[in-house]
Predict the 3D structure of the following.
Amino acid sequence: MSEIVGLVALSHSPFATLLPPDGPEQPGGRFLAEAARLSRTVARLAPDAVVVIGPDHFHANFYDAMPPFLIGVEQAVGFGDFDSRAGALPVAGELAWSVYDGLTREGFDLSLSYSLTVDHGLVQSYEMVCGGTDIPMVPLVVNTAAPPLPTMERCIAFGRALGDTLRDSGGAGRVLVIASGGLSHWLPSNDPRDPAMAEDRRHSVIHGREDARAFAAAREPRVRAMGGDPHAHVNSAWDRWFLKQLGTGELEPVTALGDGGLEEQAGSGGHEIRTWLIGQAAVRAPLVWTAYEPVPEWITGMGLGATFEVH
């Protein structure tokens, strides 16, 4: 049997690395200081493996074939976008296969990768929580862009099955779950059905696999130009409400929003809360939120919470 020793749930943002604060009093400073403190706590817990749940931002997955859920079982490579870590990442292969087998038995159809590219949506949080150490990971990618979006209810069921599978996995030792998501933020549409989407962008989100590096090189300057705007829209009232729901474990009001209500309150980027729903369902314990900042300069609300020694 294995033991889930805890969950760390935190936001990611390109600008956490691109626009780092000079001190804790600067935008994002409290969030990063708390992330560093929790990283020290994780070091003391000494997990044998981590399961990292996060999205992809059109660096590996495109609309030529978009999976709702994807697991890496052998190799994982950081894309290196927005100054995140590039290159090979350690994969806990035996545990990854156990997770795949267990979730499949529970009726979840996961796409499978023997060579998975992951971007800042997983890598940034992995680095923050693990403090730059190479703890073996199981990378789980959840689509949070546009259909096929797994429903929020489906994500909660997925998380429960994930937790059961981890506890039943023999020989994995102490496992930490990391949920890398995002709170309210408004992004250009990622839905190829949107008639307002520019044709070159539509081509990229469908055919970007043909040359992902060229696609990223053309896109990154536009994303970088969005940073540093203190007037960017962040719905901090909704963010705090959602974090309260995760803290109490009362998720029915969240799922009752549906995708339309979620986008209205939290923007298209709000779909990334799916990773946190999965993480909390896996550990089956309320989260203790230790940091929240509305950081328009980073185009998102930045939240960080954790619960440890879950049995």
Summary: The mean pLDDT is 95.
